[in-house]
Amino acid sequence: MHTTCRSLEGTRRALYIGGRFVEPKSGRYIPSFDPTTAEPWYELADAGPEDVDDAVAAARAAFTDPAWRRMTQSDRGKLVRRLAELILANAEELALMETRDNGKLIKEMRAQMRAMPDSYTYFAGMADKLQGDTIPVNKLDMLNFNLREPLGVVGMITPWNSPLMLLTGTLAPCLAIGNTVVIKPSEHATASTLALAELVAEAGFPAGVVNVVTGNGATAGEALTRHPGIAKFVFTGSTETGSRIAANAAKNLVPCQMELGGKSPHVVFGDVDIERTVNGVVAGVFAAAGQTCVAGSRCFVEASIYDRFVEALVARTGRIAVGHPMEEATDIGPLALSAQLAKVEGYVASGLRDGARLAAGGKRPQAAGLDKGWYFEPTVLADARNDMGFMREEIFGPVVGVVPFASEDEMIAMANDTRYGLASGVWTSDIDRAMRFATRIDAGTVWINTYRAAAYMSSNGGFKQSGYGRRGGFDVMREFSRSKNVVIDY
Ligand code: NAD
Known about the structure:
490 residues; aldehyde dehydrogenase (NAD+) activity; EC 1.2.1.3; oxidoreductase; Aldehyde dehydrogenase (NAD+); six-stranded mixed beta sheet
């Protein structure tokens, strides 16, 4: 990889189309900010419709080029494995870029980058396993079978919170199966995706198999989602943007896979070990300063232990170290965007107006060195109600609302009373209770006595307005391939 985090400083990053970096025809560049200082550190191209046309044309040409189309399955798998090796070899640089772009902890980004190659290797194994099936037909001397083939050009639009990790579960299988892609990363964190494009070239993928168009959602994103040359969109981001993208895609009847926002319930029964559970709840909501789609931001606690639990939660929250993301001792870094900080402050204020009690946090930290960045203290709003505004909307910041419940029925009704259905967690020592919760909750993922554990070997995704389509596991082979029916009369 030629670009490093240091060499990026103060530069302008071009678009990556057809195997090379090209200046945007739009002529526009926009800054990418460092969340610890609120200062710009490089500029990225803001692609327009002409640039998007070029990227889709390059991906289309690569899809039909014999260099890719006629590559054997096992050779495609080898390329994906080679990419895995290069990601591992460049893990430190990729981690530095993401931390600088989105302010997430360097230790977390390092762990993500080191784990990512395993998932590329897993999906690489799908290259030679895509197979169709033979089906009976009610007539003699006829053969009826389904071929499985790649879709074409897949458009991928990613958020800023874990750009490469969130790309893995779709990019790796798409490449293994033989699709080509156009990626539009978030304008707030493009550095690592452009660096990945360099690694794709270094791995030996033909030019045009992976293209990256950067820029604002309203410009580059809109142009891509209105493009008729895309076979499928994969979107990870907010529910509002997802709905807009699905509407654009529908005009060309392009299917989508949607991984959207959440407002996940975290349920604590009276029979738990309070210390262990508090640690789990804290990690589940405050990880990455609350900027995870699965954040367990609505915490329902059985009335019998409510006061003791809130006290322990507040004490544990008070020990969370807010600080610079490059420091080992830091538990929570800054929020990624200034708009995000304003949104968090607004929701905390509205929660207090609605009658919730500020039990911990609630403001920007005063410590020296944190005054310029977009930092916010981890915040507990106790004695909340599920119908308060801040309990209805995704905050995407370090804020948890705590609500007491008296019965399982009451808790399930509140937990399911949300437009989202991404994830959920339950803490109890009673397996029957845990299983009742698992079967009654409307959420794509249920964690029992743990939270945020995930594996690329299992398929997952959201319910309701948290999205549709599945990532991970063997299901993705069907998500990124199509079936063609062939009938022979012999
Ligand atoms: P966002 O919706 O603001 O932006 C996501 C991407 O969409 C960016 O690349 C952006 O440029 C693009 N975009 C914005 N407007 C567009 C438009 N009109 N047309 C096309 N593209 C457009 O989301 P964000 O703030 O970057 O990320 C945070 C959100 O992502 C949260 O809601 C979070 O829950 C969600 N998320 C979901 C998952 C999941 O797996 N379910 C994972 C991570 C993040």
